[in-house]
């Protein structure tokens, strides 16, 4: 799999269905750091779509085929976001997003064990226009 240069990947941006209900939307993200990171060092992702904001505590993360709340990810001991792996974040939103182009921004918060706590977390920001097809 070839990853795009941007943190927010153009593929993987879609509404999420549970049965006949649209329960939210997903964004595929590339690892922003120069190496992978343990799940317990991920401090969430703030998401903004067309001016509507969700805090770092809201999205669910899917890594290595497993889905976590941010609280579960912080307590995890056996999951890692690899450099060459996409993370999928799901933002709960009844009805999802309208079909069309959306202005999306993410602020990914990561901790690094070798940086003093007072300078943590590191925030990696990306913004781009992405399209929901259906």
Question: Can you characterise this structure?
Answer:
- By secondary structure, this protein is mostly beta strands.
- It has one helix at residues 70-75; strands at residues 14-18, 21-29, 37-38, 42-49, 52-54, 60-63, 66-68, 80-81, 87-92, 100-110, 122-132.
- The strands form three sheets. A five-stranded antiparallel sheet has the order 1-2-9-6-7. It has a four-stranded antiparallel sheet with strand order 5-4-10-11. Strands 3-8 form a two-stranded antiparallel ribbon.
- A hairpin with a 2-residue loop joins strand 4 (42-49) and strand 5.
- The radius of gyration is 14 Å and the shape is globular.
- It starts with 13 loop residues before the first strand and ends with a strand.
- The mean pLDDT is 94.
Characteristic key phrases:
134 residues; five-stranded antiparallel beta sheet; 1 helix; 11 strands; globular
Chain-wise SSE layout:
Blueprint (H helix, E strand, L loop, with lengths): L13 E5 L2 E9 L7 E2 L3 E8 L2 E3 L5 E4 L2 E3 L1 H6 L4 E2 L5 E6 L7 E11 L11 E11 L2
Antiparallel strand pairs: 1-2, 2-9, 3-8, 4-5, 4-10, 6-7, 6-9, 10-11
Q: Structural class given helices, strands, pairing?
A: mainly beta
Q: What is the tally of beta strands? A: 11
Strand content: over 45%
Radius of gyration: 14 Å
The largest beta-sheet arranges its strands as 1-2-9-6-7
Largest sheet: 5 strands, antiparallel
Shape: globular
Q: Give the uncertain stretches in residue-range form.
A: none
Tell me the span between the first and last alpha carbons.
24 Å
What would the average pLDDT be, to the nearest integer? 94
Q: Give the SSE string.
A: EEEEEEEHEEEE
Number of domains: 1
What does the oligomeric state look like here? single chain
Fraction of residues in helix? under 10%
Tally of individual helices: 1
């Amino acid at each position: 799999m070839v990853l795009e240069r941007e943190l927010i990947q153009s593929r993987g941006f879609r509404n999420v269905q549970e049965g006949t209900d649209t329960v939210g939307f997903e964004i595929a993200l590339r690892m922003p750091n120069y190496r992978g990171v343990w799940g317990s060092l991920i401090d969430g992702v703030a998401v903004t779509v067309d001016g509507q904001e969700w805090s770092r505590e809201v999205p669910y993360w899917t890594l290595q085929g497993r889905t976590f709340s941010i609280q579960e990810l912080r307590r995890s001991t056996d999951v890692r976001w690899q450099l060459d792996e996409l993370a999928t974040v799901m933002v709960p939103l009844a009805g999802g997003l309208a079909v069309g182009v959306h202005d999306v921004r993410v602020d990914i918060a990561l901790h690094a064990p070798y940086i003093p706590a007072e300078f943590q977390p590191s925030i990696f920001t990306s913004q781009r226009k992405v399209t929901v097809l259906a």
